[in-house]
Amino acid sequence: MGRSYVKLDGVEKLKKAFLQKAKLEPAKAILRQNGAEMHQKAQRYAPVDTGDLQRSISLQFVDDGCSALVEASVNYAGYVEYGTRKMAAQPYLRPALAEQKVQLQADLQKIL
User: Fold this and answer.
1) CA-CA distances (angstroms) from residue 43 to 50, 58, 76, 97?
2) What is the pTM of this model?
3) How far apart, in whole angstroms, are the C-alpha atoms of residue 51 and residue 31?
4) What's the pLDDT tens digit per position in 52-91?
5) Residues spanned by the domain of 32
6) How far is it, in rounded angstroms, from Cα 58 to Cα 35?
7) What is the rounded end-to-end Cα distance, in angstroms, of the chain?
8) Alpha-carbon span 51 to 49, nearest angstrom
9) Which of 12, 22, 34, 36 is most buried, judged by most C-beta within 10 A?
10) Helix segments in the chain, DSSP class H
11) Distance from C-alpha of 56 to C-alpha of 27, rounded to nearest angstrom
C-alpha cells in the first residue's frame, strides 16, 4: 500500500481571488502556519509502537508555497490510517486534516 499523505489543496481558486484582491504572501503565511499545525497534530495523533510512523511524518511546501503536503513515509502508513481486514484503522492524518481545515478556512476568511 505504501505511503499515506494528505495535501491541503484548493489553492487554485484562492490564487485567482488573491490575484484580484491582494498579493499571495498573506495567504502563504497562513498556509505555512496551518501546515505546521497540521504536521504537529498528525504526529500527535499517530499511534506509537516503535515511533517510526510518528517520526516519518513530514511537512513540505509545494506549488511555490501555495500547498502544504503532510506525509507519512513508512511503508505501512496507509495500513495504519485505513486499517486492513485484520487490523482496525487508527486514523491520524484524516483527523488532523479535518481539525485543521476549519482553522485554515477561518484564517483565510480574515484576509479576504
Assistant:
1) 13, 9, 15, 12
2) 0.78
3) 27
4) 999 999 999 998 888 999 999 999 999 999 999 999 999 9
5) 4-111
6) 10
7) 40
8) 6
9) 34
10) 11-21, 25-45, 52-56, 77-82, 93-111
11) 27
Number of structural domains the chain divides into? 1
Asked if 24 contacts 18 with a C-beta cutoff of 8 angstroms, the reply is: yes
Provide the residue type at 35 as one letter: G
Q: Burial, 50: exposed, middle or buried (Cβ in 10 Å; 0-12, 13-18, 19+)?
A: exposed
Q: What is the mean pLDDT of residues 17-26?
A: 68
DSSP state of 62: E
Closest alpha carbon to 21 in 10, 32, 13, 29: 13
**What is the per-residue pLDDT across 4-17, written as a single tens digit (0 to 9) for each?**
766 666 767 776 76
